Each structure stands twice: as C-alpha cells, then as structure tokens.
Amino acid sequence: MLRNRYIIDFDSTFTQVEALDELVKISLKNNPDRDIVLKQIEDYTAAAMDGRMSFTDSLRERVKLLNADKKHLSELVKVLRKKISDSFSRNKKFFEKNADDVFIVSGGFKEFITPVVSTYKIKPENVYANTFEYDENGSIIGYDTTNPLSSEGGKVKLLRELNWEGDLYGIGDGYSDFQLKESGLIKKFFAFTENIERASVVKNADHILPSFDEFLYLNNLPMAISYPKNRILCLAVGDVSDTTLKLLKKDGLSIRHKSSFEDKYIKDVGMLVLGVGEKISASKLKGAIRLKTIGYFGDSSHHLDLDLCTDMGIVVFDDPKHKVDNVLFIANRMMDFINRGSTKNSVNFPGLKLNTEANAHRLIHIHKNVPGILAKINNVMAEHGINILGQYLKTNKKIGYSITDVDTEYDKAVIKKLKEIEHTIKFRLLY
C-alpha cells in the first residue's frame, strides 16, 4: 500500500521564527553592530523566500555573518523549542502517531532542527537539512556545499534523488517550498501563513493554511480541536478597539470589522463583537444559526434580546462600565469560551470556569433546564462504552450547560445521539 508523506518546512513554518535570525541575536548579543547585521540577514532571508535571490547566494551570505559556534547553537535550540508554531504545538499527537510519515525538509541546519523536532517524535532520519562546518575551536566557518539543500532548487533535487512513491504533501512558507509544486513532485502545496504571508508564495499555492489545523481538517486527519478556528468568522461591528481585534486575530480567528451588521454575514458569523451603543435586531439574531458567542462593549441589556440569545444557546459577555483600560476583557472572555468552554462573567449563561483538560475530548451540550438531561447524556456515553473523565453541569432558570470530558475518540454515532436528546439547544465538539 502506497504511503502519504508530509513534507514540512522548518523556519517560519514548524517554528514561528527564522532560526538564523535568532542565532545572530545570540552570537552577537553584545556586539554594537548586532542590529545592522540582523537586518542584513533578514533581508537575505526575505529575498530568497520571495524568489528575488537564489537560495545559494542567500545562504552563503547569511552564514558569513553568523559569527557563531557550537555553544551558541545549544542556546539556539532552547530558544526554538519555545517558538514552535501554535497550531503545530497543539497537534503534537499527530506527529507522534504519524512519525514514519512526517519529514522535515529545510534549507536550515540539522544541528538545531533535529533536537527541536525530536520532542515531537520526528525521527532524525526523517530530517533533511544542511550541516555546518567548524574550525578546531568549534566556530562555524561554513557548511557542506555538496548537500543538495545548500543550492538553488535544493528541495526539488533532494526529492528527485529520494524518488518516493505515494502521495506527497508539501507545507511551507517560502519560494523553495513552492518549487516542489512547480516541479510536479508533490500532489499538493499548502502555503503556511500562520507566521508570515508571502504574496508570491500564496498566489501559487493549492491551498492556504492559516494554521496546521486547517491542513488536518482538509485531509480528514485527527486534530486537537474539532474545527479550525480560522474557519470561525468573528465579526466586529462599530467602535471596537484595534487591540481587541489583534488579540482575536492572534488566536487564529477570521476577523471582519464593519460599521454595521451586514445581511451577508448573518448565516456565517460564529462570533460577534459589538461596539458600545450597537443594536442587533431579533430577526437578525434568529438568522445567525452558527453564532456561538457575543461580546458587547457596554451594557448589553438594552441593545440585545438576551432571552432570545439564551434560547438560541448564544453566550453573551459584556462590560457594563465600558472601562477604557479594559479593552482585553471582552476578547479574553470570548476566547475562554471558544477554547475551553468557560462561561465565567457571562450575562445570560450559568458561570463556569474551565481549564483545558490534557489527553481528553471535550463535549459541550446546551439544553433547556428540564430534569433528566444529564442522565440521558450519560446513557449515550455508556451505550458506546465511553469513559467519562470529568463532567460539569450548571443551570439557570432557562438552560442547562453541560461539559463532558472523555478519554476515548468520539464517533459520529455518539454525536448524532447527543444532538437528538430532547430539549437540546446546541451541541459542540470543542477538542
């Protein structure tokens, strides 16, 4: 049976940063010319990644400027381990389960790549990268120029040498990654934009990945969350702080900022952020069938139909005093709900503060507050042999809010049964 292989770039893809940039920050820490050298290296990197300069020339000029040794490389590894891209980090299990099929192919260097990716169970023999050359004191003086990855079109040359069978999928942010698609050696090229978006690369990609979650979702592969956050439309209406929007965008959400709640967004909006004084009609709310949460700057009670929101399973957070120095309050509450299911400080839901549960799957069930719902949820779990790790239920006069953490993979049959429980308002797979 032919295998799928996942070919992943390292710099600005697996990690949030360019490793050689970070290495210069370390090696020239006390050098007064550090910022000048760093800017030169960044320019060489950008020129190669955009396709404006050959990779060979770019790499040669960058290595000349490093002034680094083996001790600096050890420090670099510690830095890079803290700079893993968020969506790769939260999907660590994918790499552990697919260790044979994940390959790091990079114009970077094995000396720092291998120890970083090894914590994700990626095998050393699955790392294809350059290697440094040193003098007798351990200082970097160059690199192995016979390695195909040290030259222009190196990734293409390498894959031709490897001559792998099966479907190959390439994930990266730079021009050298796009060259794999151009060569016809890979089935699809995915432009990874979580850390940086290069127009020259994006326009030629088969698909754009705002996160690794998107890749797993598109290819029906197991992932840490049930639905990529970049697919959740977060609509901001009116006077909403840029600081708030930047925080939500950093969390991976798809942001739109408009002066009014336009009809074209009604059916698709998943999160709604409203500036002070904004009003949303009941008819628009009723049409927002995907809406999960609303954040309101100010007192929402005179501008939203809170009873309707509750009946629809929409969690509302507001900031009645609308403190100028509290611009992150609403965004943080909304993200806590989207990421963990927390409803603390909600104005219409029973308050529940939750932490993320490691090695578990979280199921959210919103229902009318009638007796016996929790028993029905547990009966479904028992019928399918699912072990419950933790369970939380809070109610108010109108609704019940139930959280169930389980330690086994859920299947479509379980989901269908939970949704079919009488008096269910909304059901959501969180992670």
UniProtKB/TrEMBL annotation:
Pfam families: ACT_AHAS_ss (PF22629), HAD (PF12710). GO terms for molecular function: L-phosphoserine phosphatase activity; magnesium ion binding. Its EC number is 3.1.3.3. Residues 362-431 form the ACT domain. One of its GO terms (biological process) is L-serine biosynthetic process. It catalyses: O-phospho-L-serine + H2O = L-serine + phosphate; O-phospho-D-serine + H2O = D-serine + phosphate. Keywords: Amino-acid biosynthesis, Hydrolase, Magnesium, Metal-binding, Serine biosynthesis. Its cofactor is Mg(2+). PROSITE patterns: ACT. This is phosphoserine phosphatase.
